[in-house]
Design brief:
The complex is a heterotrimer of chains A (290), B (182) and C (388). Chain A has 290 residues and is an alpha/beta fold. Chain A has helices at residues 32-45, 65-68, 81-91, 103-109, 111-119, 165-172, 185-196, 211-217, 223-233, 266-278; strands at residues 53-57, 72-75, 96-102, 125-130, 176-181, 202-207, 234-236, 253-260. An 8-stranded mixed beta sheet of chain A has the order 2-1-3-4-6-5-8-7, with helices on both faces. The longest helix of chain B is centred in the C-terminal third of the chain and has 20 residues, at 160-179. Chain C has 2 domains: 3-202, Rossmann fold (3-Layer(aba) Sandwich), CATH 3.40.50.970; 278-387, Rossmann fold (3-Layer(aba) Sandwich), CATH 3.40.50. In chain C, strands 3, 4, 5, 6, 7, 8, 9 and 16 form an 8-stranded mixed beta sheet that branches. In chain C, strands 13-15-14-17-18 form a 5-stranded mixed beta sheet, sandwiched between helices. In chain C, strands 1-11 form a two-stranded antiparallel sheet. In chain C, α1 (20-30) packs parallel to α2 and α1 packs parallel to α6 (155-172). The chains are: A alpha/beta (290), B alpha/beta (182), C alpha/beta (388). The interface between A and C is large, with 46 and 46 residues. β2 of chain A pairs parallel with β12 of chain C. The structure holds thiamine diphosphate, iron/sulfur cluster (SF4) and magnesium ion. Residues 26-27, 30, 32, 61, 131, 135, 210-213 of chain A line the site of iron/sulfur cluster.
Chain lengths: 290, 182, 388
């Protein structure tokens, strides 16, 4: 249901925002809002039926996204957005289910769910805002914090290895994997559009500045400067070997679309397999199975 | 109330024996039946056992205490469980697989070459059904018709007939045994 | 409360010789459960196995999740997707589920969790029985809330009470626990499954009003809000944060009071309707033996012996353990000399009995640390002692 024609003056993003919940809690200059704008833009461009899409977030600054989007929206628990979305998708296969959450939520506490949803090729769109830290709780070190970066629980610098999320998700079985920075607005939008049209597990990592915590602690600048910093540090390499996508502190950021392939989803595989084994006795499971 | 223990080694279908009897007696034999099997540490090792309590009233305490009937299809199981058997209980063994000790108390014992009969019928895997037939004849716990109703669904469909044949073989042998006064 | 008959597709009408674990799955299927997310754990695994075997013929989804955190989260998602959903677990898995049980309470999500209890703490006794998670069921997730917990005494009651659990969960929009145990889970007995038309189910409380008027947490006249599911065009929001009628976070003391008191009151105020007890020989009893689950059967054995010695004993089986039958127990406390309370733990639910009766009568705990059921003799001795 796209009401674009009726309210031309309105910012298109308002169509998918809960304006009655504004102002939002994000800091001025925070990149999360930029990613939400790209998401809204993708829905608008696709003329997506907003009644047929649900959004699930975990906990964190990014976890607040579900609460601000005027869709069927769920703000769940820390790390459990993907399994929540899994149940939702399986119960209501004709709904597009988007997981929108932070790096800590999705790859730290929820990392196990991430790889298993990818392994199953669960038909979900996962948008992971990577700000290199646990922002909501005050800038602690995360599984994504680059080596040597400073965090509130790594006050002398981080000495742990960081996850390379495109590599992990590809290895686990994702059928669509991309990485952008938040300032790649059009590219992020396009990736989300592609993911929305894909059947399968899509993973989009968006490198996003946390001005208040990560950037300040690591003296990376603020506001638009910072957005621009990430943008300038990035280099587009579509189809790059995901093994080469480690992110180093203040180093180059390889972005692009790395994986886009077809594979049966969990439900496709379930229906196909059980039909072939059980024949007519199998109760085909699908969209009209309310 | 009757407490029964079926015992043997893994793979003989010992659990199945209690399931068949429990199902037959509770669904078709107008009895209450509660079947338990060991899952705990005592289930380790090669002696395998299943327990059945049969009663005219609801079974309250779910486990057997002093079994009145012990069915043993392996030496190890016999050695492990014989001492639990009630002094005037009933012992039923596979005569080729169990060498019993000298009789104790007023225990009555009966034996059947169940595995040998099963082999003669074409598959040793049905020895447990030979045993069930023999058990039914000796204990008279119910009729052979009722007991046989417990079998479908608990053995593979395509082997149902063979299993019932094995049951009949054991049952007839049991009747003969009784006639001969052992 | 809208009622309907069970869908015959899920109902395995007839008499079966079945274990408690299977009966849980059959109860769920009969109640219309079409989503099961689980993770294997002894002694509950057979329920998941049964569901996975049956659901392709019924129409629905079984998924073995990567852990119990995932199972319970997926259940909540599935319910908001419109399905009835259940899972089964035992101690360690139950512990992992706790955070999202709180989420289910907060989001007022109807679902059913069966716990086939084993001895704990920690890995404890995987293959042996216990009733040690009763307080965890009541209090295990953080914060204040109320849940409903039922406790079956047999495979038959595993079937019956799972249906009751679904009905209660839909009526009150709350997670309901079926707190069974290893002994019953692994015990085979006769289970009679009635024809579908004899199984009465409570339908979800679907909202039917105008779309723009829908408020996810506005209580209806019966105190329970209406529900919608994704895809119906409501574009609603719900959260684990303290929230207002709109389902929007509102983080202050007033909203907290409204939100939390509602979660508690909807159960407490309806306790009389929820609680399901089975009493015998209560009228002239001088001793009341209270128990639940497998222990209530073992108790009857002791009670029969006690009666032979002339002691007047009544029994109360708590088919509903939570909410606790405070009112009825207060009534009886004034009439009996003592309450004897055996359970397979160090004394958990008995604490509630003690709290409720105060000094109106004696309360005697008969603990058992798990691994086996009580020896009826121990319960008998406690009865005799209490009668002195
Ligand atoms: C079980 C649990 N543990 C810890 C927390 C505290 N917590 C809230 S948000 C958060 C980190 C979020 O980080 P991320 O997902 O990266 O989101 P961001 O705030 O950076 O957007 C943590 C640890 C919690 N809510 N729940
Ligand atoms: S703390 Fe960081 S991530 Fe959170 S709102 Fe502020 S800038 Fe954004
Ligand atoms: Mg983060």
């Amino acid at each position: 249901m796209n009401k674009e024609d009726q309210n031309t003056e309105k910012n298109p993003i308002e169509e998918i925002l809960r304006m009655d919940r504004m102002p939002h809690i994000w800091c001025p200059g925070c990149g999360i809002g930029t990613v939400v704008t790209s998401f809204a833009e993708a829905l608008r461009k696709e003329k997506y039926d907003l009644d047929k899409i649900a959004i699930v977030s975990g906990i964190g600054c990014t976890g607040r996204v579900a609460g601000y989007t005027k869709l069927d929206s769920f703000h769940t628990t820390h790390g459990r957005a993907i399994p929540f979305a899994t149940g939702l998708k399986l119960a209501k296969p004709d709904t597009k289910v988007v997981v929108f959450s932070g790096d800590g939520d999705i790859s730290g506490i929820g990392g196990n769910h991430l790889i298993h949803a990818a392994r199953r090729n669960m038909d979900l769109v996962v948008i992971c805002v990577n700000n290199f830290n646990y922002a909501m709780t005050g800038g602690q070190v995360a599984a994504t914090t680059p080596k040597d970066a400073n965090a509130s629980t790594a006050p002398y610098g981080n000495f742990e290895n960081a996850f390379n999320l495109p590599y992990i998700t590809e290895a686990a079985g994702a059928t669509y994997v991309a990485r952008w920075t938040a300032l790649h607005l059009r590219r992020v939008t396009k990736s989300i559009q592609e993911a929305l049209n894909k059947r399968g597990f899509s993973f989009i990592e968006v490198i996003t500045p946390c001005v208040t915590l990560y950037a300040r602690r690591n003296r990376l600048g603020d506001g638009l400067n910072l957005l621009k910093y990430y943008y300038d540090m990035s280099e587009i390499q579509h189809g790059a070997d995901t093994r080469t996508l480690d992110i180093s502190y203040q180093g180059k950021l390889i972005v692009g679309k790395f994986v886009d392939k077809e594979k049966p989803t969990f439900l496709d595989a379930m229906n196909k397999h059980l039909s072939s084994v059980l024949g007519d006795k199998y109760q085909l499971y699908g969209d009209n199975n309310d | 109330m009757t407490e029964i223990r079926f015992s043997g080694f893994g793979g003989q279908g010992i659990i199945r024996c209690a399931l068949i009897a429990g199902k037959a007696l509770s669904l078709y034999g107008n009895k209450f039946a509660t079947m338990t099997q060991s899952f705990g540490p005592e289930a380790r090792g090669s002696a395998c056992s299943s327990q059945l309590i049969v009663s005219d009233d609801r079974v309250l305490y779910p486990y057997i205490t002093i079994p009145e009937i012990l069915v043993s299809m392996s030496q190890e199981a016999y050695d492990k469980y014989e001492s639990d058997l009630k002094d005037d209980g009933l012992l039923i063994i596979d005569q080729d697989l169990v060498k019993p000790k000298p009789p104790r108390g007023k225990i009555k014992s009966y034996s059947v070459p169940s595995t040998r009969f099963a082999e003669e019928l074409g598959n040793r895997i049905i020895a447990n059904l030979v045993m069930m037939g023999f058990f039914t004849a000796i204990t008279k716990i119910t009729t052979s018709e009722v007991m046989k109703k417990g079998v479908p669904g608990l053995v593979p469909d395509r082997f149902l007939e063979l299993n019932l044949k094995a049951f009949d073989k054991g049952y007839e042998y049991g009747l003969e045994t009784l006639k001969k006064g052992k | 409360m809208k009622k309907s008959k069970a869908d015959p597709k899920g109902v395995l009408t007839g008499s079966h010789f079945m274990d408690g674990d299977y009966a849980l799955a059959e109860g769920g299927l009969a109640a219309g459960c079409r989503y099961f997310g689980g993770y294997p754990i002894t002694p509950s695994t057979e329920t998941a196995e049964r569901f996975s075997e049956r659901i392709p013929y019924v129409g629905g989804v079984f998924i073995q999740m990567e852990d119990e955190l995932g199972s319970i989260a997926s259940l909540i998602g599935a319910v908001w997707g419109g399905k009835k959903a259940m899972t089964v677990t035992s101690g360690p898995g139950f512990s992992l589920m706790m955070e999202n049980i709180g989420l289910a309470c907060m989001m007022e999500t109807p679902l059913v969790i069966a716990n086939v209890q084993r001895g704990g703490p920690s890995t404890g006794l995987p293959t042996l029985t216990g009733q040690q998670d009763m307080m965890q069921a009541r209090w295990g997730s953080h914060g204040d809330y109320e849940i409903i917990a039922l406790s079956p005494d047999s495979p038959q009651e595993c079937f019956d009470l799972t249906i009751e659990a679904f009905n209660l969960s839909e009526t009150y929009r709350v997670p309901v626990f079926v707190m069974t145990d290893e002994c019953i889970g692994h015990m085979h007995e006769k289970v009679v499954i009635p024809p579908a038309e004899e199984i009465e189910l409570v339908e979800r409380k679907w909202y039917k009003g105008p779309k723009n008027k829908y408020l996810p947490y506005k209580n209806d006249t019966d105190g329970i809000p209406f529900m919608v599911k994704v895809g119906d065009g409501y574009r609603f929001h719900t959260t684990g944060l303290t929230r207002d009628e709109r389902g929007y976070p509102l983080l202050n003391a007033e909203c907290q009071a409204t939100c939390v008191s509602h979660l508690i009151d909807k159960i407490k105020d309806n306790a009389d309707k929820i609680i399901h007890l089975k009493e015998t020989d209560i009228d002239n009893a001088e001793i009341l033996v209270m128990s639940y689950g497998i222990t209530s059967r073992v108790s009857i054995k002791a009670v029969q012996e006690a009666k032979k010695t002339g002691i007047k004993v009544g029994t109360m089986q708590l088919k509903t353990v939570w909410p606790f039958p405070e009112k009825r127990i207060k009534e009886l406390a004034g009439k009996v000399k003592a309450i004897v309370f055996p359970e397979i733990n160090a004394g958990q639910v008995v604490l509630e009995a003690e709290r409720v009766v105060g000094d109106k009568c004696k309360v005697v705990s008969v603990p058992h640390y798990g691994g086996w059921v009580h020896n009826p003799e121990d319960i008998l001795n406690a009865i005799k002692e209490a009668a002195k």
